[in-house]
């Protein structure tokens, strides 16, 4: 059975990691092209607007992962004829959030931009970027939902292809819009916003070929089901939302210490961090269908084996990532420093080496919290997510930056993730998945 679980883990995790890597390139491509096509001010403007992307992406993940978890558990218990009310309720919730985001784009774009800390130098660019993200939020949300449901419906490679297709489009049109058509920050965000539409189009193959076992249905609202969807996807939301909140707080701290150049330097670290966290999320999402199916059928050993393999994948991935970051920090910083700003280079290169020590712990924390959620152990999963998302990182950033300045700020991430990892190990020891028994 172990070899069977290993093969299934590879089947789901590898496409999921590659797909999330492609999806995260939405923003990384913007970072590269904005840095080289617009400059330091454009990079700072992008970084100030990124929390909005984290919020939209996080809610999409929450609904997608939570809804697909309920879909997968129900299907494993009731068979292929299980109803798909989870999908209907997920779409309904997404429509409500999309409406709120679009209204915010129309009426609140300027106040939100001020709230995020944009000064007069970068205000217009930041406002343009976040307003477009909010207007295209329905596409971002629907894309995240379909990615999770298609993956749980037995087509992980199609999900990967959809994410990769959207990213390729984004990278190609980032270049065209910014360099060829000289559209500036608007061109960058336009390419990013069209990318999920391309991804949705690729996933439509799942429906055209009639391989889908889920579809919207007309049925009464079930509050308890919606609660399970939200609770099951909450760790994914916290992972993404915390990134946005932490980025906002870090931006304010960095502005006081190093000004806009410091924010641009932090943008290099933060954007690379989004890519790394996305890959860890890919491992967790690849593990989720196996754990949910195992939970649905009462096979605890299989679910725990999937967790063990996911942790090993994460550790190996972390070793490779940190090796690349540590030895390639000058090269990485140079990619996003077209102007050759020595201060930006110094701050970012030093930050990369310290900040990404936390990746070893962060990956395991994300996997473990997702494991709890996939097995419907909501409380320990939420505790772990809240610890790493808000409860530890924000106080650590404020205290350590006050004592040691920028080095202290960089160190707050590994410190917070390390403490969370210890708490996660204790939760796993005290709260094994007895529901599997």
Question: What does this entry show, briefly?
Answer:
Helices cover 86% and strands 0% of the residues. It is an all-alpha fold and 437 residues long.
List the helices and strands and how they pair.
Layout: H1 2-37, H2 40-78, H3 85-107, H4 109-115, H5 123-135, H6 137-152, H7 156-180, H8 184-203, H9 205-208, H10 223-297, H11 300-327, H12 329-335, H13 342-355, H14 359-374, H15 378-391, H16 393-404, H17 406-430
Helix pairs in contact: 1-2, 1-7, 1-8, 1-10, 1-11, 2-3, 2-5, 2-6, 2-10, 3-5, 3-6, 4-5, 5-8, 6-7, 6-8, 7-8, 10-11, 10-13, 10-14, 10-15, 10-16, 11-14, 12-13, 13-17, 14-15, 14-17, 15-17, 16-17
How many DSSP E strands?
0
Task: Provide the low-confidence segments as ranges.
Answer: 433-437
- Please summarize the sheet with the most strands: none
Gyration radius over CA:
21 Å
Number of domains: 1
- Structural class by SSE content: mainly alpha
Strand share of the residues?
under 5%
First and last CA, distance: 17 Å
What fraction, in percent, of the residue positions are helical?
over 70%
In DSSP terms (H or I, runs of 4 or more residues), the helix count works out at 17
Structural write-up:
With 437 residues, the protein is mainly alpha-helical. The chain has one domain. It has helices at residues 2-37, 40-78, 85-107, 109-115, 123-135, 137-152, 156-180, 184-203, 205-208, 223-297, 300-327, 329-335, 342-355, 359-374, 378-391, 393-404, 406-430. The radius of gyration is 21 Å and the shape is globular. It starts with a helix and ends in a 7-residue tail after the last helix.
């Amino acid at each position: 059975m172990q070899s069977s679980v290993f093969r299934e883990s590879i089947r789901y995790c590898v496409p999921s990691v590659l797909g999330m890597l492609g999806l995260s390139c939405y923003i990384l491509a913007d970072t590269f092209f904005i840095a080289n096509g617009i400059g330091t001010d454009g990079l700072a403007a992008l970084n100030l607007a990124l929390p909005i992307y984290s919020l939209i992406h996080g809610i999409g993940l929450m609904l997608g992962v939570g809804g697909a978890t309920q879909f997968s558990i129900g299907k494993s218990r009731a068979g292929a004829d299980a109803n798909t009310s989870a999908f209907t309720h997920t779409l309904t919730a997404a429509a409500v959030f999309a409406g709120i985001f679009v209204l915010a784009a129309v009426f609140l774009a300027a106040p939100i931009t001020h709230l995020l800390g944009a000064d007069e130098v970068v205000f217009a660019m930041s406002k343009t970027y976040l307003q477009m993200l909010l207007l295209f939020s329905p596409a971002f949300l629907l894309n995240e939902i379909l990615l999770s449901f298609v993956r749980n419906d037995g087509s992980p490679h199609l999900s990967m292809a959809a994410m990769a297709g959207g990213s390729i489009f984004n990278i190609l049109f980032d270049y065209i819009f910014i360099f060829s058509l000289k559209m500036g920050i608007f061109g960058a965000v336009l390419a990013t916003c069209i990318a999920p539409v391309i991804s949705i189009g690729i996933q439509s193959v799942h429906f055209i070929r009639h391989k889908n076992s889920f579809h919207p249905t007309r049925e009464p609202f079930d509050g308890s089901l919606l609660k399970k969807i939200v609770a099951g996807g909450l760790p994914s939301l916290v992972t993404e939302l915390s990134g946005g909140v932490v980025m906002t707080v870090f931006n304010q701290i960095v502005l006081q210490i190093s000004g806009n150049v410091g924010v641009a330097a932090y943008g290099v670290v933060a954007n690379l961090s989004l890519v790394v966290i996305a890959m860890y999320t890919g491992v967790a999402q690849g593990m989720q269908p196996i754990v949910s199916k195992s939970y649905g059928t009462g096979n605890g050993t299989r679910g725990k084996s999937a967790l063990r393999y996911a942790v090993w994948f994460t550790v190996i991935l972390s070793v490779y990532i940190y090796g690349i970051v540590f030895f390639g920090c000058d090269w990485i910083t140079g990619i996003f420093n077209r102007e050759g700003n020595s201060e930006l280079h110094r701050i970012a290169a030093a930050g990369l080496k310290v900040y990404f020590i936390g990746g070893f712990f962060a990956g395991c924390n994300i996997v473990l919290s997702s494991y709890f959620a996939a097995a419907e152990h909501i409380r320990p999963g939420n505790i772990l997510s809240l610890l790493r998302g808000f409860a530890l990182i924000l106080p650590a950033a404020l205290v350590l930056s006050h004592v040691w300045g920028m080095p202290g700020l960089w160190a707050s991430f590994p410190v917070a993730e390390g403490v969370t990892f210890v708490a996660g190990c204790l939760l796993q020891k005290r709260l094994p998945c007895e529901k599997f028994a």
